[in-house]
Amino acid sequence: MPAIEIRPDIHWIGVNDRTTDLFEGLWPITQAGVSYNSYLVNDERKAIIDLAKGFKADEFLDQIAQVMDLATLDYVVVNHVEPDHTGILRTLRRIAPQATILCSEKARAMLEGFYQIAENVRTVADGETLSLGQHTLQFLSTPFLHWPETMMTYETTQQVLFSCDAFGGYGALQGAIFDDECLAPDFYAREALRYYVNIVAVFSRPVLKAIDQLKDVPVQVIAPSHGLIWRQNPGRIVELYRQWASYATTPPPVGVALIYGSMYGNSEEMMNAVAQGVSGAGVPVEIFDVARTHSSYILPALWVNRGVIVGAPTYEGGLFPAMVHALDMAERKHIRNRKTAYFGSYGWGGGGRKEFERLAESLKWEVLDTFEFRGGPTEEDLEKAQEFGAQFAQAIRG
User: Fold this and answer.
1) How far is CA 189 from CA 93, 157, 227, in A?
2) According to the model, what pLDDT value does residue 348 have?
3) What is the pLDDT of residues 246-300, one digit of tens each?
4) CB neighbour class for 58 (10 Å; exposed up to 12, middle 13-18, buried from 19)
5) In CATH terms, is domain 256-397 a member of 3.40.50.1360?
6) How far apart are CA 260 and CA 290, in angstroms?
7) In the chain, what are the domain boundaries?
8) What is the rounded distance in angstroms from the CA atom of residue 250 to the CA atom of residue 83?
9) What's the CATH class of domain 4-246?
10) Quick one: pLDDT at residue 130?
11) Cα radius of gyration rounded to whole Å, the chain
């Protein structure tokens, strides 16, 4: 894509990534892709804000060349040191050694640790401003969004907020970079939620703090490091982030994430009966097979639903391993205070339920009910399972 002017003398010079399989080496983006949004302020003094992964160097440098000569670059603003933001920094430093790197105090040590760059680096304080001529940059400290050194950069004359990882999302840009030109808003909203829960959810309190910090800052454009640029309705992505962040401490909407695993189909058969009970009680349900669905897609459902039903068999005296992994990921992402229930089969002896209860206690999930059955389900078991689902749905609704 060519460089695109988003406000007078402010250009998007980002790149798309449709070849990386795992974001952070963990989260699948094979289908969605991701963008690395970088921005150039082309004024009397010239500044690039945020960079890109190193393997996109040629495309990134071509984007810059469409607007300016790198030999005239004055500043590189590093809002965040993570390599998807800074991977090209060494290359840029070789081409434009005269450019001063601007970053937070904590970022200085990280730059030296990641790239052995210590010369011509200048730290900026929270609220500090820098005039580029007709444009002025203001630096806003937003620690733990989502690393401790992270900051945002605000261009005061055009009221553009370069928000770094905050207000971003997965999803390569599909020809259009702005929210008002996007023809697939549901795709980007879904990928923004997945990104939030995968990457940012642990830091929901700092998210709410940053949103409060920005409440008196007039913003016409939100330009994050990943995903759409919000110029028609920047408040929409802020409110989505506020809503998602609130689920860390307050109950999410009434709904059920039903996660299950099944070795030979017995727990799956029961799952269908449980789901029928939940749905019949008028409560929406999202269903995931933990052995076949990456946790990247399961975690958002756990985050935005008040209830979680876990269905999995006993395996070697404990809980089905793929389910243990899913619940461990929920623990790592601090998905707390859900209402939950368990069902599952066992052969000669149990153990799955007990391990589930230990994990639920660690997660601070309230266990409302459990239901185990031996071997394959009987007709009576299936009837009980349907009632089990209906009662759970009624309990979380009440």
Assistant:
1) 36, 29, 10
2) 85
3) 999 999 999 999 999 999 999 999 999 999 999 999 999 999 999 999 999 999 9
4) exposed
5) no
6) 6
7) 4-246, 256-397
8) 33
9) alpha beta
10) 98
11) 24
